[in-house]
Write the structure tokens for this entry.
Amino acid sequence: MRKPLIVANWKMNKNVDEALTFLHQILDELPDYDREEVGIAPQAFAIYPMMKAVSQTPLQIIGQNAASKCNGAYTGEISVRDLAAMGVNYVMLGHAERREIFKESNRTINQKLLTALREGVRPIVCTNGEQKMVGQHNSCYSIFRQLDNVLTGVPVSQVTRIVFSFEPTDAIGTGKHADLETAEHGCHLLRQEIGQRYGSQIANQVRILYGGSVNPNNIRLLMAAPDIDGVLIGRASLDADSFIQMMNYQQMALAQVM
Ligand code: PGA
């Protein structure tokens, strides 16, 4: 059974006061941890105060990024070892914005991934491609190449520790989520590809998230798709009421969203 994982990716938004206020608004509304896992990825400086504030709750505070080195002369970087020391369990790696704006290569992401696994922090590895590619023959070639390069050197025993995400670049931040078939198909192809590399037993255990303009109106349908085990939410996660609705999507009547 793959436990659903709902992740708020705040990107470069919310200062410490705003982050803590948000926590106070949502903590009483967290869904039952046995049924679902919820996480928030704030800016790096907010991780420590947020970790303190959630220490008695199952809410995960997640790194948006971390370096491939654990310490040393790397000005501006974030150490995954030090995230682990704070008790952080997950770190996002290779988000589309890291790839596009900061020119992170598959090789860089691979190095970060190996370091995160070594330090005991579970990577959320983001893959992306344009929606129109998903429907075509050999369509996911570039997504699979990302997967191939990013997973180099990962021992089979570690694969189920990784969470994967499929995010169509043209659905991120546009307000236009992928249609359900494309979202499901992209996640399904990713799972198939993981199965080809590591076998179906591992592929069936791995969690795959969809990301791109998820909001309270579409989350319930997306989460009902067989290969979508969770979502990465950007813009719609910044508002506490909207996030409360989304993390409690299991209680939304399907009729409400159809
Ligand atoms: P969005 O962002 O929900 O604002 O489209 C998603 C993401 O970047 O992960």
Remarks:
- The domain at 5-257 is CATH 3.20.20.70 (TIM Barrel).
